[in-house]
Write a sequence for this structure.
């Protein structure tokens, strides 16, 4: 594997070599972190372009610096494509990341100390949804709704909509958040909106994980139900690393634009915005619908194969790209931390994760979070995913034996070699 980087190799061979090594790592391993993907060469070309050189504080046609003509066109294309892709009227494409998008929305719509409803980090939420270590938990007042934890309930693992209504009725939040980082079920945006309307709150969806599925019609759209939608652009949406905020409400859009700049950010990353425009263009093509559908099919194949081997899964399976394995039924003594370490040695890249009814600390956990977006980009289909599930099981059964892990590592590299990635 070699990158075509003649200048970088000449100017800075140390960094060039590390990038080449990373390209090789990505090519020879199986990327199963649910929040990661392999973006296209076209996106990487835009992100690696001279557009990194320019200051464009402000918005198209309203800049503080000269020389922004082409950038106005780039940003406007990104905005128009985002609106067309997600079916909304206003988009802010400047957030540097998902966390920056969320901070801007909180800054736009809430005052310090204001109450909002979300779910706990340990139940699938994100740090920016009110965690005590995040500004959202320190400066705002999060109240939390729950998951359905009764395993005999057909909705086991889904959001407990009755608990949403209860917490909203009791605490009268200004805003309700839905959208998660480790949630395998479809989100009932319409159900959330009914509660928001009944109690006169704003509804905000953070679709960071599922944006590509929404764009590709493999998950219901958050519009027209949500007042505000935030997302990352680099997870299932498969674009450059970045954030995006959308709404249909012109007044909210004005507040959000001010909250992004000058509220919480300085100059936009115009090279990344160009990459976002390319990503939105790619995601609007028919092939992307096929991709999104295959991500979900692969998620189901992964869940089915693991269940057949006796693994317990959060929500008993998945309706999207993400599978949360509860290791305790098969390996009561194995932590998620150790499992993720063994899997990495075998070339299968995952992360430890808390599971419903967790009994261990977030630094050890009883679960591993798996995802199919990156493998699907590389072209794996259900039968390949079943093979991957076998390799995952063999890794966990190895009890960390180095020789066995080295053998699985070879099988992983052989499988990965059949599915080239963009680099
Ligand atoms: C990943 C994620 C974010 C944060 O995105 P960053 O780009 O890492 O800041 C926010 N919300 C949810 C639900 C996420 O999964």
């Amino acid at each position: 594997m070699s990158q075509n980087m003649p200048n970088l190799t000449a100017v800075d061979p140390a960094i060039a070599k590390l990038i080449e090594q990373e390209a090789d790592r990505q090519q020879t391993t199986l990327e199963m972190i649910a929040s990661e993907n392999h973006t296209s060469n076209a996106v990487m070309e835009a992100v690696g372009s001279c557009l990194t050189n320019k200051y464009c504080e402000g918005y198209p046609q309203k800049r503080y610096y000269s020389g922004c003509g082409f950038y106005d066109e780039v940003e406007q294309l990104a905005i128009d494509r985002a609106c067309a892709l997600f079916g909304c009227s206003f988009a802010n494409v400047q957030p540097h990341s998902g966390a920056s998008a969320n901070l801007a929305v909180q800054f736009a719509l809430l005052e310090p100390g204001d109450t909002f409803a979300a779910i706990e980090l340990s139940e699938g939420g994100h740090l920016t949804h009110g965690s005590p270590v995040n500004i959202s938990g320190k400066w705002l007042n999060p109240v939390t709704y729950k998951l359905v934890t009764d395993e005999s309930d057909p909705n086991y693992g889904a959001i407990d909509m009755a608990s949403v209504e209860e917490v909203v009725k009791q605490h009268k939040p200004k805003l309700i958040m839905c959208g998660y980082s480790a949630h395998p079920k479809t989100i009932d945006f319409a159900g959330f909106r009914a509660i928001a309307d009944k109690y006169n709150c704003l509804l905000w969806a953070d679709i960071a994980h599922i944006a590509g599925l929404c764009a590709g019609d493999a998950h219901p759209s958050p519009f027209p139900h949500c007042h505000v939608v935030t997302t990352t652009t680099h997870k299932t949406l498969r674009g450059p690393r970045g954030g995006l905020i959308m709404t249909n409400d012109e007044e909210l859009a004005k507040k959000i634009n001010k909250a992004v700049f000058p509220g919480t950010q300085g100059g936009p990353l115009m090279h990344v915005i160009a990459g976002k425009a390319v990503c939105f263009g790619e995601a609007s093509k028919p092939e992307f619908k096929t991709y999104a559908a295959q991500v979900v099919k692969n998620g189901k194949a992964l869940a089915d194969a693991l269940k057949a081997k006796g693994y317990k899964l959060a929500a008993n399976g998945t309706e999207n790209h993400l599978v949360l394995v509860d290791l305790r039924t098969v390996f009561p003594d194995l932590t998620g931390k150790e499992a993720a370490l063994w899997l990495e040695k075998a070339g299968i890249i995952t992360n430890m994760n808390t599971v419903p009814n967790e009994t261990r600390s977030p630094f050890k956990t009883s679960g591993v979070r798996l995802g199919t977006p990156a493998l699907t980009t590389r072209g794996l289909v259900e039968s390949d995913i079943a093979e991957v599930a076998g390799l995952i099981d063999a890794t966990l059964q190895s009890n960390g034996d180095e020789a066995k892990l080295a053998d699985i590592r070879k099988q992983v590299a052989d499988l990965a070699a059949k599915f080239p990635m963009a680099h």
Remarks:
- Residues 109 and 223 are 18 Å apart (CA to CA).
- The first strand starts at residue 30 and ends at 31.
- The chain is about 45% helix and 15% strand.
